[in-house]
Amino acid sequence: MAAPRLPPPSFAPPPSVRPRALAQLSASSSTAAVKSTRIKREVVAVTTPPAPAARATSLSEAWREIQGEGDWVGMVEPLSPLLRHEIVRYGELVAACYRGFDLDPASARYLNCMYGKRSLLREVGLPESGYVVTRYVYATPAATGCSRWIGYVAVASDQAVRRLGRRDVLVCFRGTVTHAEWLANLMSALESARLDPTEPRPEVRVESGFLSLYTSDESGSRFNGGSCREQLLAEVSRLMGEYKEEEEVSVTLAGHSMGSALAVLLGYDLVELGLNRRAGEQVLVTVYSYGGPRVGNAGFRRRCEELGLKVLRVANANDPVTKLPGMFLNEGSASKLPWGAGAGAYYTHFGVEVALDFFDVWNYPMCVHDMEAYLNLLKCPQLMMEKKKKKKKKVVQVNNPWSDGGVHGVMEFFTTMARRFLEEPRLDLILWRWLDAAMQVSNMVQSLKI
């Protein structure tokens, strides 16, 4: 299927220009009308790129830019139509993991995929995706020792290569579904990753639950051969070596929620081990994260950035999962603590964020993190613009208890949260947040030896 033709990216005036223009345009006299015309010309002169023809408008021409080679500079605010199209496209491929997951206890395929590899994308409504699924991926939560289907590996077909501009190796992960996976999410202690046996790098630390899910193995499973990590490294390496060296290749890792954490771990693993090197050059490895939690500490962030791992984080401002782990001790709060905090003691996000704003965690707790809700908003660019014009909701503002840098802000935060805790009719929706907070405080005390 031919690629849809999209309008070229738009460019908004910088904040320093916009207020002046709006102020003059609001005048009601004829002189103001003349001025507004002059102002409009001035804005165009300032914001138009010096060489507009240099920005490619087709995916086959702009794929490196879309995959983050330039760190998405000038593409996020405002969101480039071409980038938005790709975010939605990869999001649909992630949603396929949910649509194909069998949650019927009476089914013979319970906790596995309902469809075979050849029919998965067709059965979930993506017959023209342009990808061929080559392997299913299974992960083993430490709490049960039993593997579950977590996602799939796919590669772009020959026809899709002409549209995409390269051979895209794709790995998609679903998010948390089972109770054992929720337990893995709540294991919020930081642990050294040590994925490179020749250079352990103990300062590179990641969340222990995600690491366990990534590396644990159910040796007796009839589905998977080895851990989630072993399956993925073997298949991605095989696909990268299957095509001619002169053919351009990219590696795209996409996931929602817990799946985005696995995507980040896999991305780090590939670039740390040098498995993205091909014909003497480095293959671009890009992570598309949807509603993803923090994965590691500042040492992990620095190492990923040094190795050139590209991460695009699509996050709803009202989604509590994007604030975890590290709700209380993170990149925003650690520097404001009275006693300070070492870089290895707190969690941090990294990459480039595409900020969304939809629903309210207190009124719509089941929607703020839903993958389909993410996709529905991304498909409506006008609605996205209207949302960004509104003021941030109070629930977002209260997520940073250290906003005033003192004890007053902390006490006000705890008072507010305690009141909401007592008033909340569904305590199960917030108990896990307090459990995470308790774990974070415990981990902080252990790390800092307070």
UniProtKB/TrEMBL annotation:
Superkingdom of source: Eukaryota
Keyword Signal: no
Molecular function per GO: phospholipase A1 activity
GO biological processes: lipid catabolic process
Keywords: Hydrolase, Lipid degradation, Lipid metabolism
Keyword Hydrolase carried by entry: yes
Family of this protein: Belongs to the AB hydrolase superfamily. Lipase family.
GO cellular component terms attached to this protein's record: chloroplast
Biased composition (Pro residues): 1-17
Domain Fungal lipase-type: from-to ranges: 171-327
Protein name (record): Fungal lipase-type domain-containing protein
Segments for region (Disordered): 1-23
Species: Zingiber officinale (Ginger)
